[in-house]
Design a protein that fits this description.
Blueprint (H helix, E strand, L loop, with lengths): L7 H9 L2 E6 L2 H4 L13 H4 L2 H4 L2 H6 L1 H17 L4 H12 L2 E6 L5 H4 L6 E2 L2 E8 L5 E2 L19 E5 L8 H13 L2 E5 L10 H5 L3 E6 L10 E5 L2 H10 L2
Parallel strand pairs: 1-2, 1-7, 2-3, 7-8, 8-9
Antiparallel strand pairs: 4-5, 4-6
Helix pairs in contact: 7-11
Bound molecules: adenosine-5-diphosphoribose.
The site of adenosine-5-diphosphoribose has 23 residues, from helix 2, strand 8 and helix 11.
């Protein structure tokens, strides 16, 4: 592993920051054993067709396959633990006056690491809702058929995640957008920035932008700090310097 150098000016800027806003993606959960989406080999979209599994049409075509795919991912999430990257962000929230954490991840690992008020831009795989009514359902029973049925209308149940072609819940994205516009420091962690509108947050971010990603970030500017490496290694190092 290359030595991680944290510039002094960045630490100074973080120590002075009143508002910090963060966007995370699948990369922050990779070290917990949750596959990312677009990694060439191990990424979910390298193995599966997103249009079949992560669209409303795909669900209508084959509700059983889609339900079982999410049930398997939900199972996986329950077998893993948050990693040092998740815990470092929970600790960072205790060190800065105001921190807003928005995630594209549906795994709930930020919350399990102790982060509060997490903005779930793409929903949460641990929740289920009615496909027809869109209302959340507290419990479901797979013994009565797959996908299980809505106790109110009898329609199919689906995971409470945002599928391609679907809008993000208005109030959810507006909160993340407001935080990005108002922050002194913005973190973009473990995301390929290929999915809108989440990717727009780094573009509208006010103040200093810090990117942490395995892939080299192309955008260079005096207000950007690009760290090329693992979030679970870089974030603890950065936070402990505060
Ligand atoms: N630390 C930091 N970055 C990492 C790590 C790591 N340990 N491991 C992988 N990465 C980087 C990858 O290099 C890649 O740039 O994380 C990024 C993950 O990108 P994607 O797989 O595209 O995931 P994400 O950006 O979260 O996808 C956005 O797309 O499929 C939809 O709804 C899904 O929320 C998801 C959205």
């Amino acid at each position: 592993m290359n030595e991680i150098v944290i510039p002094v000016q960045l630490i100074e800027a973080l120590k002075k920051a009143q508002r910090v806003a963060i966007l995370t993606g699948a990369g922050i959960s990779a070290e917990s054993g949750i596959p990312t989406f677009r990694d060439q080999l191990t990424g979910l979209w390298a193995k599966y067709r997103p249009e079949e599994l992560a669209t409303s049409k795909g669900f209508q075509r084959n509700p059983r396959m889609v339900w079982e795919w999410y049930a398997a991912r939900r199972e996986k999430v329950h077998t893993v633990e948050p990693n040092a990257g998740h815990y470092a962000l929970a600790e960072l929230a205790r060190k800065v006056p105001e921190l807003t954490l928005a995630t594209q991840n549906v795994d709930g690992l930020h919350q399990r690491a102790g982060s509060e008020g997490v903005i779930e831009l793409h929903g949460n795989i641990n929740r289920v809702k009615c496909f027809d009514e869109g209302l959340l359902v507290d419990s479901w029973n797979e013994n009565q058929g797959i996908p299980p049925r809505c106790p109110r209308c009898g329609g199919f149940l689906r995971p409470d995640v945002v599928w391609f072609g679907e809008m993000l819940p208005d109030e959810v994205f507006e909160k993340a957008e407001y935080a990005a516009k108002k922050c002194d420091v913005f973190f973009s962690i473990g995301t390929s920035g290929q999915v809108e509108p989440a990717a727009s947050l780094a573009r509208i971010a006010h103040g200093i932008v810090i990117t942490i990603n395995l892939e080299v970030e192309s955008l260079i500017s005096p207000y950007r700090y690009n760290f090329n490496g693992k979030a679970g290694e870089i974030l603890p190092l950065l936070v402990q310097k505060l």
